[in-house]
Amino acid sequence: MLFISLALLTLLPGVFGQSWQQYLNGLVQALYTDGLTTLASASAALNSSSDGQQVARSLSTGNWTLFAPNNQAFSSAPINLTSDPTSVRNLLSYHVVHGNFTDQTSSYPNITLGRTLLNDSSLVWLEGNESQVLAWSKGSNGIFVLNNGTYDVTSVGGALSSFNAPTNNSITLLNVLNNASGITLFAPNDTAIATASCIGGLLPNTTALIALSEIMFVINGTTVYSPSFTDKNTYTSASGEPFSFKTNSSGVYVSSAGSNWAQIMRSDVLTSNGVVHVIDSVLLDKKVNVSAAISAYQSATSVAASMSIETGPVGVAPTTYGQ
Question: How far is residue 162 CA from its own chain's centroid?
Answer without folding.
Answer: 27
